[in-house]
């Protein structure tokens, strides 16, 4: 170790806050509630083309023919999402009955990546109607497939939540869930980096998981992107 | 691993994990939050812990995963704020870049570390806080020893330059 190393070791030392271990032990005794138990409270309607409605609370699934497969897939993906094991949905949605403006707003909402938020005003600008933040709010409020089209990622410009079809408490919990869920996971044995929820990612053992902040970071240390889920930095 | 053994691990490692997290994140509250979250994850997955690993490798793996993801979100939060005319003020969307730098000793180092790319910064933190060797760093991040060496070299050069530019010579 040269003089620079010795000096850096000295500089890097930092005193931990007092009673840190005590606070950690207290947190271990009170684990945070998970969202997995909520999966049964979601109900789906689907057409041949995809999921056309998602409801929360009392109700039952409505689907026939190929729609039933969409419902099955949507429920499986939602369970994984609520458990923090999935960061994107692949089940198709059918927005056939939706008017043109709302369709554009929902399409923009779908572009907000997992774990991120945008304001109503920003979304209004992105659909080319910068003064239409309120209309954007109404369009999102009438989103027929919440969660799958992530209208919960749209918040007010002042940082408060705004309206949410399934209630502000659920919006808070979904955003907290996304905050605690890593998006890019690499396997130390294959040196491949996946989006969380990819079938390959789900097979990575607990002891082989490394998280990355970007695909570029992963490439810098020898990990290549998965060819199935194709992670990209602009949509990570 | 039973609960009592895990409680002893917490006692033994919390301070060291905190120091690594602080050097990665540069912020006391975020560092404590990262340590809490990492240890909660380890506790929940303690049955999956394999004794063929050094316990420190396991703890540092989970901690660095949590810290790296926190750094990813900071990048995202910066983007969101720059896109919005009226930046959101809720704590979860606050812009890290606008945070005041903490006063007192270590300000230069915190600033200088901010200039080091994430992967290299993490290896520097593990290497200089806890004196971990190349082999253990490679196991923690699942990378080759050569990559560890080149990342550390690169990180150290950037750090040194930033410290010198800030009037603090890291080699004195």
Q: State the CATH superfamily name of the largest domain in chain A.
A: Winged helix-like DNA-binding domain superfamily/Winged helix DNA-binding domain
- Please identify the structural class of chain A as seen in this structure: alpha/beta
Q: How would you sum up the major sheet of chain A?
A: 4 strands, mixed
What count of structural domains of chain A? 3
CATH superfamily of the largest domain in chain B: RNA polymerase sigma factor, region 2, helix turn helix motif
Strand percentage of chain B: under 5%
Helix count of chain B, per DSSP? 7
Distance between the termini of chain B: 45 Å
CATH class of the largest domain in chain B: Mainly Alpha
SS element count, helices of chain A: 9
- State the assembly state of the protein chains: heterodimer
The name CATH uses for the topology of the largest domain in chain B is Rna Polymerase Sigma Factor, Chain: A
Describe the fold and architecture.
With 236 residues, chain A is of the alpha/beta class. Chain A has 3 domains: 36-82, no CATH class; 100-180, Arc Repressor Mutant, subunit A (Orthogonal Bundle); 184-235, no CATH class. Helices cover 37% and strands 13% of the residues of chain A. Chain A has helices spanning 3-12, 20-29, 66-82, 100-110, 120-126, 133-141, 168-180, 199-202, 215-220; strands spanning 42-46, 51-56, 62-63, 118-119, 154-155, 184-187, 192-195, 209-212, 224-225. In chain A, the strands form 3 sheets. Chain A has a 4-stranded mixed beta sheet with strand order 8-6-7-9. In chain A, strands 2-1-3 form a 3-stranded mixed beta sheet, covered by helices on one side. In chain A, strands 4-5 form a two-stranded parallel ribbon. In chain A, β1 and β2 (51-56) form a beta hairpin. Chain B is an all-alpha fold. Chain B folds into 2 domains: 1-96, RNA polymerase sigma factor, region 2, helix turn helix motif (Rna Polymerase Sigma Factor, Chain: A), CATH 1.10.1740.10; 100-172, Arc Repressor Mutant, subunit A, CATH 1.10.10. Chain B contains 7 helices and no strands. Chain B has helices at 3-25, 28-44, 55-83, 107-114, 118-130, 134-141, 145-165. Chain B is globular. The model of chain B is unreliable at 79-105 (pLDDT under 50). The chains are: A alpha/beta (236), B mainly alpha (172). At the A-B interface, α1, α2, β4, α7 and β6 of A face α1, α2, α3, α5 and α7 of B.
